Amino acid sequence: MRKAISALSLCILAGSGVKAQDSIPVRRNSFFPVPVVGYSPEKGFEFGVAALYSYYSDKKNPSPFTRNSTIGVLSTFTTNHQFKFDVRFENWTRNNDFHIKTNFRYHNFPFYFYGMGDTTHYANRSLVGNIRYKFTVEAERRITRNFYGGLSLLYQKDEFKADDPKGVYPLMDLQDKDGGYATFIGITGVYDSRNNQNYCTEGSYIRFNAAYAPSFLSKHPLWRLEMKASHFIPLSKKSTLGLNVYGNSLQGKVLPFYLLPELGSDNIMRGYYTGRYRGQNYLAAQAEYRYLLDPKMHIKIWFVDMRPTFALAGFAGTGSIFGNHDFELSRFKPNYGLGVRYFYDKAARITIRMDYGWGEKRQGENRQHGFYLSLAEAF
Predict the structure, then answer these.
(1) Which residues contact 237 (CB under 8 A, 6 or more apart)?
(2) Tens-of-pLDDT digits for all 379 residues of the chain?
(3) Are 148 and 140 within 8 A, CB to CB?
(4) In which domain, by residue range, is 273 found?
(5) Dist CA 367 CA 48 (whole Å)
(6) CA 179, CA 276: separation in Å to the nearest integer?
């Protein structure tokens, strides 16, 4: 796994002077930028910023039930002339009657390709350059109190080239090795009884999406199935147990390697490099314990006026990638880790999340691990 060093300045706040978590704070807009500095051999030095703006869409006719909406931006560049730009919008209308999410991503960034399947080796990795254009939009309408139905659209175009002759990528016969494109049109069903979509302490969330990529809009006709399910159990006033399951499947006669599900991310199976294992189907589950800490401190320095609140977290899970006819429980891989959350918007319960996760230790290799920073909870 690549080594990276991240230096983060977390003292830039706007709109954070809210009341303690125990009371009901007045809702307000907030903005939180995080400068990002990193280094890894394949990228050189990386510089950029991640930021999240939170607002309420029903300002003219506010409802106490309306969830906060967000705009998130990530933009970085490297000394090796690589670039990444990602912008996400999540909008909740008044009383949460409509939920609309959009995402645009462009990157010209390398990644490590380890091969296919769940037995890849670190020593066989290849550095691969990737140019990606990706656009998604999801629109859901409330049908009953907790049930939503909607439509989705995803367009993705990729170009690949080997950045060095080492490893398995130059030698492998991969489907659409040089790149391709796909347009998925889908339907979505959602059950959502969470008491908060950011830092939930009670309720359930289940989402299922089935999407088809027709041949006249894609390089190959494909089906994509995705399922997410979470349930939150309040153990005490300050502690919560969260349970989460995720599944993803790509079906079709011709399966481009870059659209196959990948094990590992900052949300589930933390500790594994994203794409270390690739396969046609992916199933993972995790549990996370969260404990709220409110030290009752008041910090007022220059433009900073805050009463910090934190949460500690411990998580563990398991997951596997597999073909349509080779599902085996013995092939599921472990992950576990620890994390800290800082509530920078207590009214909306928005956190900045720092996690460190560990995965399996393969013979002859160091244990897989990773550090994650995100302006959102894992689930």
Answers:
(1) none
(2) 433 334 333 333 333 333 333 333 468 899 989 888 877 767 778 899 999 999 999 988 999 999 999 999 999 999 888 999 999 999 999 999 999 999 999 999 999 999 999 999 999 999 999 999 999 999 999 999 999 999 999 999 999 999 888 999 999 999 999 999 999 999 999 999 999 999 999 999 999 999 999 999 999 999 999 999 999 999 999 999 999 999 999 999 999 999 999 999 999 999 999 999 999 999 999 999 999 998 777 777 776 667 789 999 999 999 999 999 999 999 999 999 999 999 988 889 999 999 999 999 999 999 999 999 888 899 9
(3) yes
(4) 5-374
(5) 29
(6) 19
- Write the CATH number for 248: 2.40.160.50
Q: How far apart are CA 332 and CA 317, in angstroms?
A: 10
Give the up-direction half-sphere exposure of residue 101: CA atoms within 13 A in the CB hemisphere. 12
In a domain, 176, yes or no: yes
Q: How many domains does the chain divide into?
A: 1
Give the list of residues 6+ apart from residue 305 with CB closer than 8 angstroms, or none: 16, 17, 299
Would 379 be classed as within a structural domain? no
Asked, for residue 273, whether it belongs to a domain, the answer is yes
Answer yes or no: is 193 within a domain: yes
CA-based diameter of the chain, in Å?
62
Instruction: Provide the whole-model pTM.
Output: 0.88
DSSP states of 25-92: PPP--EEEEEEEEEEETTTEEEEEEEEEEEE-TTSSS--TTPPPEEEEEEEEEETTS-EEEEEEEEEE
Beta bridge partners of 193: none
